[in-house]
Every structure is written in structure tokens, then in C-alpha cells.
């Protein structure tokens, strides 16, 4: 290798480093639509419109962009069957299954904490009103 940086050094990812490519990957996974798309696909393969209905509120454009990014990163598999009209189905790759399991754990944690968070928000808001 001709540069001063060894091959191993180039492969070390550090999400806290500004230029690290892992930040973009993390953004694709943890963005609102990425998280929800991956969690939905953990339930099994979906066609585009069925996935869009499952991920309530996502626009067609945002879902398409999200799926494309996740496919490029290797988390989602897109299979287009040669039929008329074309039948396209999305599913998780082995890496997608791993990351979706972690996201499902986080989602379940968040859902379980909703009452506690609601109370914390109410206390915070009440304290802010008293400070005025």
C-alpha cells in the first residue's frame, strides 16, 4: 500500500469521527423511516404499498428513498419479479435481520416507557410554567 495509513487503520470505524462513513449508515438505520421500515420488515417480506400502509405517515417518495438507502447499505433486499405489472417485494438481508432485532428491542423499550415519559414531560412543563 502506498499511503502512510495502513489498510487496517482504514477499516476501523468510529461513529464519533466527523468523516467516518458509519455516520451515514447509522443515519439510514436510525432515521424515523429507516427504523420503522426495518422494524416492519422484521415481520416478513412486504410489497411496497403494503409496507407504506404499515409505516403509517411515510410518503411514497420518502419510503422509496429509505428503502433504496437501506438496500445500498445491505440491510434490505429488493426482488423484482418479471410480471405485468411488476411485482416488487422487500425483505431483510441477514444484516438487516440483526439490526432490526436491535431496533425492535429499542422500540419495545420506548413503548414500555411511554407512561413514564409522559409523566416526566408533565413535570418538566409544570416546572417551566412555575419559573415564568
Automatic annotation (TrEMBL):
Would I find Signal among this entry's keywords? no
Q: What is the lineage of its organism?
A: Bacteria, Bacillati, Actinomycetota, Actinomycetes, Pseudonocardiales
Superkingdom classification of source: Bacteria
Keyword Transcription regulation appears in the UniProt entry: yes
Q: Which InterPro entries match?
A: HTH_HxlR (IPR002577), WH-like_DNA-bd_sf (IPR036388), WH_DNA-bd_sf (IPR036390)
Q: Which GO terms describe its molecular function?
A: DNA binding
Organism, by scientific name, is Amycolatopsis acidiphila
Q: Which PROSITE patterns match?
A: HTH_HXLR (PS51118)
The protein, known as: Helix-turn-helix transcriptional regulator
Q: Name one Pfam family in it.
A: HxlR
Amino acid at each position: 500500500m502506498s499511503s502512510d495509513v495502513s489498510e487496517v487503520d482504514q477499516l476501523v470505524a468510529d461513529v464519533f469521527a466527523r468523516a467516518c462513513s458509519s455516520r451515514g449508515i447509522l443515519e439510514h438505520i436510525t432515521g424515523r423511516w429507516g427504523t420503522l421500515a426495518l422494524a416492519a420488515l422484521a415481520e416478513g417480506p412486504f410489497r411496497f404499498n403494503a409496507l407504506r400502509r404499515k409505516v403509517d405517515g411515510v410518503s411514497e417518495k420518502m419510503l422509496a428513498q429509505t428503502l433504496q438507502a437501506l438496500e445500498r447499505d445491505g440491510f434490505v433486499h429488493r426482488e423484482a419479479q418479471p410480471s405485468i405489472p411488476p411485482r416488487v417485494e422487500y425483505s431483510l438481508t441477514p444484516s438487516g435481520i440483526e439490526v432490526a432485532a436491535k431496533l425492535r428491542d429499542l422500540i419495545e423499550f420506548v413503548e414500555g416507557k411511554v407512561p413514564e415519559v409522559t409523566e416526566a414531560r408533565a413535570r418538566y412543563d409544570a416546572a417551566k410554567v412555575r419559573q415564568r
